[in-house]
């Protein structure tokens, strides 16, 4: 099995060293970037409060889940106060969008009629924010906030997850396979693949299944579900060692190479759904009705695709990889194979490591 069985890939130590000492520090945002974004968030929250008194703007996605790269977009979600006048998301998009346009330097684009109405903001580069800033504001998306918290908790459990995810984010962007609008997979989808790999494929597991551990004593039992979705999970990292400790000492480099091996040669794409909340980590496509490749509307337009199936951890009827086309999956698997080949070819080292990312 290409060195996997022996647990040693020849280049793994070198790769691990590169990831930890060079790669990760060079791609993560510096404190001043976090500060500038937090300042922008607070200012936008003031404007949201003018539109609807008591409104909050909460970060989700990469700025809040521990997987941010330098200059990544800021995802914000607006929550109205409980006693605020009821307004539709599209109305809020228009009102807040107009106010932001009047009061800030952001270039504003509103999408009030999208399936999920949002405001898209871009800020040109300035002295304090040399790379500019991009920001999306959505409304009342509680599940996005909760899945962000789930990812953040996993990131706090074992540092190897973050190393793998940061590498995959940079690599999938360079290889152009991180584009749900063009038939490939979102960062969120790739993160779920890595969690599946570390929690369910690796033996002994490196991550627990946080959605299957008995809830900690600190759990808030009033908020276990949201709109019929079970959103509970073990979120008390301090209390975790009493219920889960990994005995798997594989290095980040070894795990990365083995991730590429697993998803290029071993995973059964045709038959299985990746399901991090399940006991086994996968389910048959047939049990979810996802064995039919393409779901279409009555008018015949393509809605969901089931070539690659990744079940959302909370919204179980939602295939996070529904945007991945047949071609897209073929390209993604080809890229996994290419990366595996480069990282396990003796003559290509050490330049091979750079070659995986570049060219
Ligand atoms: N999200 C989701 N369903 C998706 C895609 C995204 O619920 N199909 C939500 C998740 O809460 C996710 C957030 O949107 O954490 C941001 O997703 P994405 O942009 O894919 O991930 P980021 O970590 O923000 O990565 P990037 O830096 O590439 O923007
Ligand atoms: Mg994002």
Account of the protein in words:
It is a single chain. This protein is an alpha+beta fold and 359 residues long. It has 11 helices and 11 strands. It starts with 11 loop residues before the first helix and ends with a helix. A hairpin with a 6-residue loop joins β3 (107-111) and β4 (118-123). The protein folds into 2 domains: 12-26 and 145-357, Poly(a)-polymerase, middle domain, CATH 1.10.1410.10; 31-141, Beta Polymerase, domain 2, CATH 3.30.460. The strands form 4 sheets. A 5-stranded mixed sheet has the order 1-2-5-4-3, with helices on both faces. The chain has a two-stranded antiparallel ribbon with strand order 6-7. It binds cytidine-5'-triphosphate and magnesium ion. Magnesium ion (MG) binds at residues 61-62, 73, 75.
Give a quick precis of the structure:
By secondary structure, the protein is of the alpha+beta class. It is built from eleven helices and eleven strands. Helices cover 41% and strands 13% of the residues.
Q: What is CATH's topology name of the largest domain?
A: Poly(a)-polymerase, middle domain
- Which value, in Å, is the CA radius of gyration? 21 Å
Mean pLDDT: 93
- Ligands bound to this protein structure: cytidine-5'-triphosphate, magnesium ion
Supply the helix-strand structural class. Answer: alpha+beta
Q: In what order do the strands lie side by side in the largest sheet?
A: 1-2-5-4-3
Please tally the β strands and state the result.
11
The second-level CATH architecture of the largest domain is Orthogonal Bundle
| Residue windows where pLDDT falls under 50 for at least 5 positions | 1-6
Name of the top-level CATH class of the largest domain: Mainly Alpha
Strand content: 5-15%
Give the N-to-C terminal Cα separation.
27 Å
Binned, the helix content reads: 40-55%
Query: Number of domains in the coordinates?
Result: 2
Count of DSSP-assigned helices = 11
Principal-axis shape: globular
Run of helices and strands:
HHEHEHEEEHHHEEHEEHEEHH
Main β-sheet: number of strands, strand sense, barrel status? 5 strands, mixed
Give the oligomeric state of the chains in this entry, treating copies of one chain as homo and distinct chains as hetero: single chain
């Amino acid at each position: 099995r290409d060195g996997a069985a022996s647990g040693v890939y020849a280049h793994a130590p070198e790769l691990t060293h590169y990831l930890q000492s060079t790669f990760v520090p060079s791609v993560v945002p510096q404190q001043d970037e976090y500060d500038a974004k937090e300042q922008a968030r607070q200012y936008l929250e003031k404007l949201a409060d003018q539109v609807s008194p008591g409104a909050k703007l909460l970060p989700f996605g990469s700025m809040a889940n521990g997987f941010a790269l330098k200059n990544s977009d800021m995802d914000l979600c607006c929550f109205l106060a409980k006693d605020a006048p009821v307004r539709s998301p599209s109305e809020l998009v228009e009102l807040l969008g107009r106010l932001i346009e009047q009061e800030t330097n952001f270039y504003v684009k509103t999408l009030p009629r999208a399936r999920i109405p949002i405001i898209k903001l871009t800020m040109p580069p300035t002295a304090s924010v040399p790379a500019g800033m991009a920001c999306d504001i959505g409304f009342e998306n509680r599940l996005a906030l909760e899945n962000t918290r789930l990812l953040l908790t996993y990131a706090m459990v074992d540092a190897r997850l973050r190393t793998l995810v940061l590498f995959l984010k940079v690599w999938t962007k360079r290889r152009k396979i991180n584009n749900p609008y063009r038939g490939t997979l979102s960062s969120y989808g790739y993160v779920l693949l890595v969690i599946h790999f570390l929690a369910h494929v690796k033996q002994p597991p490196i991550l627990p299944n946080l959605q299957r551990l008995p809830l900690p004593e600190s759990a808030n039992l009033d908020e276990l579900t949201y709109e019929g979705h079970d959103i509970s999970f073990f979120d008390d990292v301090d209390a975790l060692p009493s219920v889960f400790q990994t005995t798997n000492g594989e290095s980040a480099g070894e795990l990365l190479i083995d991730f590429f091996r697993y998803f290029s040669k071993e995973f059964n794409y045709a038959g299985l759904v990746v399901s991090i909340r399940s006991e086994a980590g996968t389910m048959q496509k047939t049990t979810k009705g996802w064995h039919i490749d393409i779901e279409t509307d009555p008018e015949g337009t393509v809605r969901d695709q089931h070539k690659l199936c990744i079940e959302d951890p909370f919204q179980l009827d939602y295939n996070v990889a529904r945007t991945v086309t047949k071609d897209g999956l073929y390209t993604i698997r080809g890229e996994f194979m290419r990366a595996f080949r480069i990282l396990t070819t003796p003559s290509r080292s050490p330049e091979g490591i750079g070659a995986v990312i570049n060219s």
